[in-house]
Amino acid sequence: MGTEIVDVAVIGARGHTGAELLRLLDGHPNFRIAAVSSRALVGKAVRDEVAGGLRTDAVFADLEPADVAAHAGVGVWVLALPNGLAAPWVAAIDEHAPDSVIVDLSADYRFDSAWTYGLTEMNRKWLLGARRVANPGCYATGAQLALLPVIELLDGAPHVFGVSGYSGAGTTPSPRNDPEQLRDNLMPYSLVGHTHEQEIRWHLGHRVFFMPHVAPFFRGITLTISMPLGEPIARGELLERYRQRYQAEPLVDVIDEAPLVRDAANRHGVTLGGLTIDPAERHAVVVSTLDNLLKGAATQAMQNMNLACGFDELAGIRQHLVAR
Predict the structure, then answer these.
(1) Per-residue pLDDT averaged across 130-137, rounded?
(2) Distance between CA atoms of 81 and 111, rounded to whole angstroms?
(3) Is 6 left (phi over 0), alpha (psi -120 to 50) or beta?
(4) Span 31-43, average pLDDT
(5) What are the percentages of helix, strand and coil residues in the chain, rounded to 5?
(6) Contact 259/265 with Cβ under 8 angstroms?
(7) Could you tell me the strand order of the sheet in which 101-104 lies?
(8) For the ranges 35-39, 43-47, 96-100, 174-178, which has the lowest average pLDDT?
């Protein structure tokens, strides 16, 4: 890895994902935090508001798209905004800094063929040098990585039962991030037509049904995926397909037992396991777990930024990896 330093601006950094990304950026050998925008935290030092002993001297500002022209030296713009708010920023960056990289964490460009879809393990070669990257959704990441090894074996639509910690509902108060309403509870929502269901279908080119729920734990996702198969297949053969597909992927683990969501918290990868088969029914089930704030958002954004800028894909991530 070279010694080039690239300035990064993070827009909408107040949320949980923004804080995780700032922690990763702070320890990156090639990225420098140049601008951080959050209306709620204007004037406060980033290192005072984000836990983890950050070294950066950056201060939160209230930036608008019109301010892009004054930050034309920024090499990477990370848009960590709610859905529907990215377009004015993209237009301003296109006008004033067209050669810079944009990584959008919202769903706004995940269905736009002019943007590179940033599921690294599926689109790595397209992400090298990319300038407009749509970061995948958290549920969509875990589901697609679970389905990729078997997509050509499917005979019908997989059913994906997903449960997320309440950090996935963001920081704006709602029933889905209220610990009192979630206490001893499991809350289903958006059971038909969820954005991530559409995202999985679009990028896998296969019909999928997805049923999300939120639980009382803070972070992590577990997905139990029921898969109809076209032909009978032995469990060992199917497990080998998963192992072969991900043997060179540093952030995907394939294990024999079903992974537990509590073990996904604060880990940077996806764990696939618990593969079970009923050959008579031509039916298989696999379990996928990940941290929704890391591989489901910030870690994946960092992978994409590294590839777009020509750095080691795991730069800023490697030092945080925990051996299984």
Answers:
(1) 98
(2) 17
(3) beta
(4) 95
(5) 35, 25, 40
(6) no
(7) 60-61, 31-37, 6-11, 76-79, 101-104, 132-134, 116-117
(8) 174-178
Give dist(CA 187, CA 272) in Å, integer.
24
pLDDT at 169: 79
For tokens 């529907």, name the residue: 84
DSSP 165-182: EGGGG-SS--GGG-HHHH
Mean pLDDT, the chain, as a whole number? 95
DSSP state of 262: G
**Active-site residue (options: 138, 145, 150, 315):** 138
Write out pLDDT tens, residues 239-293: 999 999 999 999 999 999 999 999 999 999 999 999 999 989 999 999 999 999 9
Rg of the Cα atoms in the chain: 20
**Cα torsion through 293, 142, 288, 167, rounded to 10:** 30
pTM, to two decimals: 0.95
Active site residue 138: yes
| pLDDT tens-digit series, residues 203-214 | 999 999 999 999
Spatial distance between the Cα atoms of 214 and 221, rounded to a whole number of angstroms:
9
Q: In terms of DSSP H, where are the helices of 38-154?
A: 46-49, 87-96, 120-127, 138-147
CA atoms of 306 and 30, how far apart (whole Å)? 9
